[in-house]
Amino acid sequence: MNIQRINPTSRWSDATIYNGLIHFVEVPEDTAVDMAAQVRQIFAQAEATLAQCQSDKSRLISATIYITDIADVPVLNREWEAWLPAGCAPSRACLKVELLNPAMRVEIAFVAAEMRVL
Questions:
Q1: What is the per-residue pLDDT across 47-105, written as a single tens digit (0 to 9) for each?
Q2: 7 lies in a domain?
Q3: I need a labelling partner for 107 at 20 to 30 A (CA). Which of 25, 30, 86, 98 fits?
Q4: Domain that holds residue 105
């Protein structure tokens, strides 16, 4: 099975698809906003990436969430629960870290399943 890379650069690809799984990472574009707005940006970008890969958020398998401030967890959880369709929450890990851009409050790595037409 071939590896498909979406918009590859010398450092990353927007998404990598292998064996029916889509792997991708999203970061906020506007870091001058609060946690809720950064999370919503990531979700909008994730939906666009999933659509480009012929999938959607109901097909998420896992998410690894990196946050810089543990006090932001309630905001993250509120946005997360509002964004996901009922009964479609993926496996999830959330880690407190220091991100390379100090203005970024959150970064999320996703894994989703492709939609397949049989």
A1: 999 999 999 999 999 999 999 999 999 999 999 999 999 999 999 999 999 999 999 99
A2: no
A3: 86
A4: 14-113
CATH code, domain with 26: 3.30.1330.40
In a domain, 6, yes or no: no
Beta-sheet pairing, 91-96 with 60-67: parallel
The pTM of this model reads 0.94
Q: How many CB atoms lie within 10 A of CB 105?
A: 23
Starting at the earlier edge strand, list the strands of the sheet with 15-18: 4-6, 15-18, 21-26, 106-113, 60-67, 91-96
Segments in the chain forming alpha helices (H): 35-52, 73-83
Residue 4 resides in a domain: no
